[in-house]
Amino acid sequence: MIPDAKIPAGPLAQKWQSHKTRLRLVNPANRRRYHVIVVGSGLAGSAAAASLGELGYEVSCFCYQDSPRRAHSIAAQGGINAAKNYQGDGDSVRRLFLDTIKGGDYRAREANVHRLAELSTAIIDQCVAQGVPFAREYGGHLANRSFGGAQVSRTFYARGQTGQQLLLGAYSALSRQIGAGAVRMYPRHEMLDLVLVGGHAKGIVTRNLATGEVRSWAADCVVLCTGGYGNVFYLSTNAQGCNVTATHRAHRRGALFANPCYTQIHPTCIPVHGEDQSKLTLMSESLRNDGRVWVPRDAADCGKDPSSIPEPDRDYFLERKYPSYGNLAPRDIASRAAKEVCDDGRGVGPAVGGRRLGVYLDFASSISRLGEGVIRERYGNLFDMYGNITGENAYRRPMRIYPAVHYTMGGLWVDYNLQSNIPGLFVGGEANFSDHGANRLGASALMQGLADGYFVLPSTVADYLAGVGLAGRPSGEGAEYRQAVAETNDRVARLLAVRGKETARSYHKRLGRIVWEACGMARSREGLTKAIADIRALRDDFWRNVSVPGDGADLTPELERAGRVADFLEFGELMCRDALVREESCGGHFRTEHQDDGEARRDDARFAHVAAWEWRGEGAEPVRHAEPLVYEDVQFTTRSYK
Amino acid sequence: MVKENAPGGHDATLRLTLRVWRQRRGQPGAFEEHTLAAVPTSASFLEMMDLLNEQLVRAGKEPFAFDHDCREGICGMCSMTINGMPHGPLPGVTTCQLHMRNFRDGETITVEPWRARAFPVLRDLAVDRSGFDKVIQAGGFISVRTGSAPEANTLPVPKPVADAAMDAAECIGCGACVASCKNGSAMLFVGAKVTHLNLLPQGAPEADRRAVAMVRAMDDAGFGNCTNYGECQAHCPKGITLDVIARLNRDYLGARLRGFFASTGKPRRGGD
């Protein structure tokens, strides 16, 4: 049975405010007696740890990087949405809410999304006060730009480094609390298990990546802000270390995993260039404000120099198909359109594996209209990055782009308080599932991470702590802790003991190829069924043939990688299974059997629900629970960006 | 400048000899020599290191440990000294954004960790940069309680000021400035943070305290002094310039002087 989502009663716009006044509080003098563990130090984790520490709780924060400042939130380029309506172009909380619900293709929870839109404005205030250097107009006020999926300019940005600047803001707040002794920071620590005592989350097991030490930590509750699982595809825009381990381990301990098949394929990434590539690089969606996407009309022109192809022979396919949004169509739609023209044999750029997978993003008309200086001012760092990676000058010839895995909307199931079905286990940021439905709009991830971390978790964690009280707290010495440590040690030992011939990376690559083909931009019953069998076979092979040199008693990146790949090999199956059962197309989930001429066909009668999966043990079938999506305010409609 | 691909350059490969630093924590280290037969010119430097490590693991040998994460030049985790230069020969890029088309076929490449007293080697090419975090913890922030911030547009910031603060805020905290400095000084890093925060009106109330506390923490963490050689500027992948050091010196000196003249000698009484 799926637990209650605890959506407060009352009118949509008042739910959060009235809920907040009902949440229980912890007396300031008692707060330091509660220990809260925060895992992950990206926007959600840093913001939550800093805010909880500032409120007076004893906080421990863990991250796998060498410093909390390096979490992958740092790589977000384009911006953060907020319903400030500084441009006077008709924006409002209501409109941001509606855009986000529609962008998510009516598969997100209404109450959560409304709260997100409400909190968006306070985030900007908070970040500006921290000294985040957002772009400004000459009058000294904040500047905005437009972003995909919206018809207002509500996106705040700091050049092409918005995520970096927001993270450095949250990191500075966290550092202030570390310096003040309110937060203890544990970098180079990876969470490898969750400890349950009496059915509540009361601690974690970590491996110190620098020394190899495995140990447990006791706490009154655990907050996971450990990001998404995009690296299940091997090639993605995620950082190399991004992984599913923390959430998957919590899932194995009983936490429900919601909508794992909702993954976002970002339309504007640099195309794959070769077999040894380790990652894909995003080119900010903001580029679509000034760049026009096209391919040749005739497949015979694809190998030609783009400047030699005259206007009438170019197909500006987004402008043609979606005249009202044009190049700013939402990500899922723009990605699919690019895949379609490449499948039609009209892709451009060098062929990899016999196929040209790329489309042009052309700035020529913007450069002639605005001048190269303006384009350089807006996107200079992106053009430089593109030049470094491809060896091409995008001021002189069109960029080549292709969709790539970027973000995962699915995540651990949480209620309105961001608490999972395991009491005391909270999940924030990309690691939870709640706000983006089946597709995330641009500039919404930063908004959600910070809303969860600064404004939601500090209130809801307090409510849980006040409810459980200080009596009967686990000491950290119990059998549950010892057993979790023993199981983790055993798993590390098993990985080291295989002593096979293949590298963990080679398994990761093969897994990535399977899920990209079967569970990427287009999914079918046949492909998914085969993928599930292939992943199982690969998993068996992994545990027989993987090679992890060394003894693990030191900094051992191969061991870290092998552990993460092992978890991806379990999780990838769940993702395909979820995609297989969801017999409809919605947002980023496109089932080839359910379409109207290339447009997604939702089935609200059968699938207007959250799928939340329960782990039943290795080799056992997981159980799918459904939480109905009840819309009190908005109507289900078919998305149209035409 | 970016080296552009020759026509058909996507498929070209290089044969390379690599001299790579091998070291366990607390023990002396040494170079190890390896060859790679076919490195694609389109690969990044870290992808070339992946190829080397894959080759070692397949042969049952231990791969080289090195720090890296985002591989798009923004997280600041990658940290290799390549042919004596932090982040390698191409100006304005991190190691992860250095691509193999910038090297020649048959070349020998020397790969070392950051070399600085304040950055002890953890293993092979990975070093401990926690000194940077300690400096930020001492004062690299603006104290604002969550949820207590005023409406963002009530405090206009002139665009040139906001732009200059952003220039300084681009620092990724990689430590190339320290690694390139013969004194192992962190003045470029600290200067960038102090400049970012002290330029903005939001940062003004704590400006003096910040400069003094961060400089003290920098000294405590074992970083050396600045003698204005400017190697840091030359190797900074984000183009942070020496004027942030001038700003830091000015703010620090001003803060100390103001602190001296503001002192009445009367012991402070706390609380009310």
Unreliable runs of chain A, pLDDT <50, ≥5 residues?
Answer: none
Within CATH, the superfamily of the domain at 267-405 in chain A carries the name: Succinate dehydrogenase/fumarate reductase flavoprotein, catalytic domain
Largest sheet of chain A: 5 strands, parallel
CATH class of the domain at 267-405 in chain A: Alpha Beta
Looking at this structure, what is the CATH superfamily of the largest domain in chain B?
Alpha-helical ferredoxin
Order of helices and strands of chain B: EEHEEEEEHHHHHHH
**Strand neighbour order, sheet with most strands of chain A:** 5-2-1-9-17
How large is the radius of gyration of chain A? 24 Å
Mean pLDDT across the residues of chain A is 95
CATH class placement of the largest domain in chain B: Mainly Alpha
- How large a portion of the residues of chain A is in β-strands, by DSSP E? 5-15%
How much helical structure, as a percent, in the residues of chain B?
A: 25-40%
Multimer state: heterodimer
For the termini of chain B, the CA-CA separation is 61 Å
> What distance separates the N and C termini of chain A?
40 Å
Mean pLDDT of chain B: 94
Spell out the key features of this protein:
heterodimer, A: 642 residues, alpha+beta, Flavocytochrome C3, Chain A, domain 1, Methane Monooxygenase Hydroxylase, Chain G, domain 1, five-stranded antiparallel beta sheet, 21 strands, B: 272 residues, Ubiquitin-like (UB roll), Fumarate Reductase Iron-sulfur Protein, Chain B, domain 2, five-stranded mixed beta sheet, 8 helices, 7 strands
Describe what is shown at a glance.
The complex is a heterodimer of chains A (642) and B (272). Chain A has helices at residues 15-22, 28-31, 43-55, 93-103, 110-130, 162-179, 245-252, 317-321, 331-346, 364-370, 372-390, 445-468, 479-498, 504-519, 525-545, 557-581, 604-607; strands spanning 35-39, 58-62, 80-81, 155-156, 183-186, 189-197, 200-208, 214-218, 221-224, 257-258, 263-269, 292-296, 314-315, 359-362, 399-408, 411-412, 425-427, 595-596, 599-600, 609-614, 623-628.
